Amino acid sequence: MYERIKGFRDFYPGEMRARRVVIDELEAAARRYGFREIGTPTLEPTEMYVDKSGEEIVDELYSFTDRGGRDVAMTPELTPTVARMVVAKQQELSKPIKWFSTRPFWRYEQVQQGRFREFYQTNVDVFGSAEPEADAEILAYCADALSGLGLTAEDFEFRVSHRDILGGLLESFDADVETREAIRAVDKREKVKRTEYHALLTEAGLSREQAEEFDALLDTDDLDELVEFAGTERVERAVANLENVLEAVEDLGAREFCSVSLETARGLDYYTGVVFECFDSTGEVSRSVFGGGRYDDLIEGFGGQPTPAVGVALGHATLSELCRRAGVWPDESLETDYYVLRVGDTRPVAARIARELRERGNVVETDLSGRSFGAQMNYADSIDAETVVIVGERDLANDEITVKGMASGEQTAVPVDAFPGEFERPTYDDFE
Amino acid sequence: MYERIKGFRDFYPGEMRARRVVIDELEAAARRYGFREIGTPTLEPTEMYVDKSGEEIVDELYSFTDRGGRDVAMTPELTPTVARMVVAKQQELSKPIKWFSTRPFWRYEQVQQGRFREFYQTNVDVFGSAEPEADAEILAYCADALSGLGLTAEDFEFRVSHRDILGGLLESFDADVETREAIRAVDKREKVKRTEYHALLTEAGLSREQAEEFDALLDTDDLDELVEFAGTERVERAVANLENVLEAVEDLGAREFCSVSLETARGLDYYTGVVFECFDSTGEVSRSVFGGGRYDDLIEGFGGQPTPAVGVALGHATLSELCRRAGVWPDESLETDYYVLRVGDTRPVAARIARELRERGNVVETDLSGRSFGAQMNYADSIDAETVVIVGERDLANDEITVKGMASGEQTAVPVDAFPGEFERPTYDDFE
Fold first, then answer.
1. Helices (H) and strands (E) in chain B — how many of each?
2. Which of A119, A241, B55, B220 lies 20 to 30 Å from B15, alpha-carbon distance?
3. Alpha carbon of residue B27 to chain centroid
4. What percentage of residues in chain A have a pLDDT greater than 70?
């Protein structure tokens, strides 16, 4: 007996069915916005991730040397791949480029509740627009996708910020601040103890007093106050951009899901503008459900023409936690329209009925194992069959079959030639 | 600029759209038969493949040692994984177990026309029935799936055989035959020169004369002749089983797609009963499109209770070649219901219209880049928008918008409050 690899999952039909409903909804929403599906490879050159994220990323990668001597990595995220694809066809692709896809990614990380080494994401990106409407469309898409799953403004919120607000505020202190370090500290603000957080800020270059002043600024509701505090064009522009994005989000009907939250810094370094994270409003799912933002420099960094970009990666693991918490996780039971039960030498008729029901688009199972009446009924029960069509030798001698509604247990004889007849999806009620 | 890894593919939206239509059809057909979707991991223990296929398989694997010291392989096929999953929940799963899934697999092979190192398959399997109805259901499913793609009996055929017919015939020769070698030779019958083929048979232990006699038998239409020639119970049973399967296929309406073809041996060693391959009827796609068969011993070999099984792996690469050859490959152009074009300060109205059209399930794009009227029209053209809704400042001053049908070029003014109004998918024709 073989063991599944740690951090990887098998999805049996019930759970898979629920996951499929969720994936279909996320993708249908993306299609409505005119995002187009793409397909992407599982392996990429390892250097692509090292160049983007630094040598330390290798510790998290499933990377190896292939039989042709190539250093390859199982993709830990989609963004570098789509950036490569945009660069490869930069001339032919009409802008904006709007892509989505759903697939697994891999990181060699500590396995814990809701975090796996193989994890699934739906990625949605816009390339070629620097305007607030593009950021807004990503946010509105996320709101539509989550609403489509049955989640409401009571269930989730998008915490929205702009990387230059934090960066600009830090710059305005009379101190030699390591901006990256300080932003990473902010990203940990809710995750670590207050003293540890302040220690991280002072390590990044702020004095204790400055750290407290900076921290107080993060809680303000008044963006103008920040502009005034910093007194720089950088912060002024960032605040104006954030406000423009939120206004465009308002036009798209998704403003109610968004709150400004300056501590939303996102761990990743390549964001250049608006950033956001989705959180469970109740706090029960404590980590961010997913996140995204603007990354205007990546395509150029990959050797392409300067191409602004904004996108989101919806991680299915935390999203499913949110759905379960909110009571909207789809039903995991199987759905079967018909079980065609045969008794005795009746296969041609049973097969004809199964075939015609399938041609009408129904989910139909029939006996594959030559089992008894009772065993077939038990199986029909186990697959949640709505209707059982009994094709028995004695009934057939009278040119009849029996149609049984499994919920009520009621059954009736039906002329064999009348089934399924004109009906698309005949049930007991059509013949009683 | 980074290079894509050799043998791996990027799918841009046009090709991906056609592939998605194909995948959806293959999966919808599987669902109608009551096959249930499962999700499976990308990595498995390398030894799982070595135990099943021998040490030489490693040369074809993307295998490596992970950071935890595990010898892992990117799955080269699905069957061992589903066998592992069946064994892991053998007690809970009600039989027959009917599963399907679509995903990529990986083999380090020579890259050539229609063969890639990353390749996609839809796998469909039944576990727990040894009866001919199960084999027949797999064949009927394949026929339905291909018919659903628009392929007909003119386009493809299933060449069906039984592993024990070949094995039994070989056994009946007065010679010390290496059955595996001989069956592999038969599998190459159409692929290599006649002299080479005969050499392979003699290497396997047949005399020259026996090889010719054996070869002549393969072309017979009369299965009874084989039973008589061999004179063994093994061949008699195999022929009877094959005939029973074809009879059950007849009941399911798929007999017309099947021909008996003894040379269909399948390269893989684990088949135990009926085997089949799908071929292009015109021969233009020269290699088999896909294949499958019965493998009754695998689950037991994986440490489970004896569990008969039959399945098929539909490879998308050769299937797409067949679809293209037959002229039924889906349209690769994008589909867009609406482009909402805005001119001047009209974003709230344009956004409201886009939102309401999306709520009705339509594919809607709108300006994300603050572009000119002309640039927006060109973009609407490039995404094959069916209808352009023009929201202009001057029109809006009269509480009007303009609805333009892109095929005809005709346009008309519509009261802004009447759009989309009661309509699910309003076009120019609704307002002219």
1. 15, 16
2. A119
3. 9
4. 99
Smallest Cβ–Cβ distance between A8 and the set B19, B43, B59 belongs to B43
Q: pTM score, two decimals? A: 0.94
DSSP secondary structure letter of residue A149: T
Q: Cα-flanking dihedrals φ and ψ of residue A264, to 5°?
A: -75, 95
Is the ipTM of this structure higher than 0.85?
Answer: yes
- Select from B5, B41, B369 the Cβ nearest to the Cβ of A5: B41
Q: Look at A11 and B137 and tell me if their CB atoms are within 8 Å.
A: no
Segment B111-122 shows an average pLDDT of 92
CB of B355 within 8 Å of any CB in chain A? Answer: yes
Q: Cβ separation of A248 and B351 shorter than 8 Å?
A: yes
State both tokens at A100. Answer: 């989505």
Q: Which domains, and CATH codes, for chain A?
A: 13-40+75-325 (3.30.930.10), 336-430 (3.40.50.800)
Complete edge-to-edge strand list for the sheet that includes strand A43-45: A43-45, A71-74, A62-65
Which of A98, A368, A384 to mutate to test binding with chain B, by most B CBs within 10 Å of its CB? A368
Separation between Cα atoms, residue A16 and residue A315, nearest integer Å: 16
Compute the distance between CA of residue A424 and CA of residue B190 in angstroms, rounded to an integer: 45
What order of strands is seen across the sheet that includes strand B118-127?
B36-37, B97-106, B118-127, B309-315, B290-294, B274-280, B156-162, B258-260
Check the CA dihedral B258-B262-B267-B269 and report its sign.
positive
Q: Structure tokens of A200?
A: 């991280």
Are B59 and A66 an interchain contact pair (Cβ–Cβ within 8 Å)? Answer: no
Give the tens place of pLDDT for each residue, A234-261: 999 999 999 999 999 999 999 999 999 9
Chain B residues within an 8 Å CB radius of A4:
41, 44, 84, 88
- The arithmetic mean of pLDDT across residues A264-277, rounded, is 80
Reported in sequence order, the residue ranges of A21-167 that DSSP labels E, i.e. its strands, are 36-37, 43-45, 62-65, 71-74, 97-106, 118-127, 156-162
Q: What share of chain B is helix, strand, coil (3-state, %, to 5)?
A: 40, 20, 35
A135 contacts A96 by C-beta, under 8 angstroms: no
Cα A19 from Cα A391, distance rounded (Å) = 35
Q: Is B13–A36 a contact, with Cβ atoms under 8 angstroms apart?
A: yes
Tell me, what DSSP letter sits at residue B60? Answer: G
Q: A368 and B248: CB-CB below 8 Å? A: no
pLDDT in tens, A69-88: 999 999 999 999 999 999 99
Cα(A150)–Cα(B379) distance, integer angstroms: 34
Contact across the interface for A32 and B361, Cβ inside 8 Å = yes
Q: Do A98 and A80 meet the contact criterion of CB atoms below 8 Å apart?
A: no
Which candidate, B419, B417, B373, B412, places its Cα nearest to that of B399?
Answer: B417
